[in-house]
Design a protein that fits this description.
Layout (H helix, E strand, L loop, with lengths): L7 H12 L7 E4 L3 H15 L5 E4 L2 H9 L13 E6 L3 E2 L5 E2 L6 H10 E8 L12 E5 L4 H10 L3 E4 L16 E6 L6 H9 L4 E4 L1 E2 L5 E5 L4 E4 L1
Parallel strand pairs: 1-2, 1-3, 3-6, 6-12
Antiparallel strand pairs: 4-5, 5-11, 7-9, 7-10, 8-9, 12-13
Helix pairs in contact: 1-2
This protein binds ribose-5-phosphate.
Ribose-5-phosphate (R5P) binds next to helix 2 and helix 4.
């Protein structure tokens, strides 16, 4: 998995503490990204030790990793609710609002987070900010990319089609769509921007997660800072 932000030790501390919250019998949302990967590995070790859970992966990458470490899986279309979801974030503010989608998985991640009784964010200190201040990824239907880009500009944003690093052309999501990374500067009112983006035809999902996270585990150099 692609590594971003803080140190692996910080990410691992946060993720392993969050994995300890999972109990036998639970359905667990498995987020995507380099921080969540540590939680998936920790859950795999716990399953080896007898923990009885089923994981709901939010991406192709998480499904592969979870399968490799032996977590029994259910696919998203099979589950009506999730007991606990563990996932990373690209930005995290003081109210636990998030920007997600650095790995283009935010559409499925949001479905799982919203279906979860408890949504736990795992992060390192580089993700924490006073105000959300990073570009917001939008998953868009391919045919809608130009009209959505125009709508984003009308909302005061600067959209850029996300391009693939190892192939010519754009990033294509696990759902077959494109990603527009939209720079809005510092986002003073995430709920209002989220509502505007959700109301834009052609936007499959945006990466603003407002009011979804129950708690955040932020790994530091010597422990874990728990925020609620
Ligand atoms: O689409 C990807 C996700 O939203 C990730 O959870 C997010 O980008 C954080 O990833 P990482 O833990 O690698 O920084």
């Amino acid at each position: 998995m692609k590594t971003t932000g803080g140190s692996d030790d910080q990410k691992r501390r946060a993720a392993e503490r969050a994995a300890e919250l999972v109990s036998s019998g639970e359905t667990v949302g498995l987020g995507t990204g380099s921080t969540t990967a540590f939680a998936i590995r920790a859950l795999g070790r716990a399953v080896d030790g007898g923990l009885d859970v089923r994981g709901v992966p939010t991406s192709f990458a998480s499904r592969e990793l979870a399968r490799d470490v032996g977590i029994p899986l259910a696919s998203l279309d099979e589950v009506a609710s999730v007991d606990i979801a563990i996932d990373g974030a690209d930005r995290l503010d003081a109210d636990l609002n998030l920007i997600k989608g650095g790995g283009a998985a935010h559409a499925r991640e949001k479905i799982v987070a919203a279906a979860a009784s408890r949504f736990v964010v795992v992060a390192d200190p580089s993700k924490v900010a006073e105000t959300l201040d990073r570009s917001v990824p939008l998953e868009v239907l391919p045919d809608a990319r130009t009209v959505v880009a125009g709508a984003v500009e009308e909302l005061g944003g600067d959209p850029e089609l996300r391009r693939a690093e190892r192939k010519d052309g754009p990033v294509v999501t696990d759902n077959g769509n494109l990603v527009l990374d939209c720079e809005f500067g510092r986002i003073a009112d995430p709920a209002s921007l989220a509502a505007d983006l959700s109301a834009t035809p052609g936007v499959v999902e945006h990466g603003l997660f407002v009011g979804l996270a129950d708690e955040a585990y932020v790994g530091t150099d010597d422990g874990v800072d728990v925020r609620r």
